[in-house]
Design brief:
Length: 205
């Protein structure tokens, strides 16, 4: 969960915030007929996917990390708006940039880790309950879906409650390092947040 492939996904999200703050995010995105936030999310995900393949970091966890990157981009770029597909390119860029300019990179990191836990546990629940759908515990597909949604929501809320401000400086510095050094620094933060997230999940049940 905190391997280099997943760290690459988190690093890509942090770099997207920096690019947005510097006015460079548009260079990654070809919007066409797609909503700007969707186009930006896809562009950052594809960039991370290429980096993972280039460095040989592909794994099941990195695949889930890429999904988490895409959904975290949606949340960060929405800036709290429920109308995801009505958000303009400028609005999405401003919302994403705010994590960098307002020194909230640690909150952006927590957003990513929450989504990573979401996708990971959704995968585990789907895998481990598929044989029981239709039985007394999960009589319908709808109830199995509700269970997945409840577990995912619990994961995101648990991670969101973690304290991560102590990592703000390390994340800001990582954005100025070369790729290998930046990845190592981001991975250190990711490892800490992942371990504490798992401990919190185990504690609260």
């Amino acid at each position: 969960m905190s391997g280099p492939g997943v760290a690459c996904c988190l690093s890509s999200l942090l770099q997207a915030s920096r690019l947005a703050a510097e006015g460079g995010l548009a260079a990654l995105v070809t919007v066409g007929d797609r909503p700007p936030l969707l186009a930006a999310s896809e562009a950052v995900r594809e960039q991370a996917e290429r980096a993972i393949a280039r460095e040989g970091h592909a794994s099941r966890f990195s695949d889930l990390g890429l999904n988490a990157l895409a959904t975290a981009m949606f949340e960060a770029g929405a800036g709290g708006s429920p109308e995801l597909f009505s958000i303009t390119a400028d609005q999405a860029a401003d919302a994403l940039a705010s994590y960098h300019t307002e020194r909230r990179l640690h909150r952006l990191a927590l957003t990513f880790v929450g989504h990573d836990f979401d996708h990971l546990y959704r995968y585990f629940v789907t895998r481990d309950t598929s044989d029981f759908v239709g039985g007394p515990g999960l009589p319908t597909v709808a109830e199995a879906s509700q269970l997945r949604d409840a577990v995912s929501r619990h994961c995101r809320e648990t991670v969101a409650a973690l304290e991560a401000a102590a990592h703000e400086q390390a994340l800001a510095v990582a954005l100025r390092l070369d790729d290998s050094q930046a990845l190592a620094s981001v991975q250190d933060v990711l490892t800490d947040l992942t371990e504490r997230g798992l401990q919190r999940l185990a504690a609260v049940g």
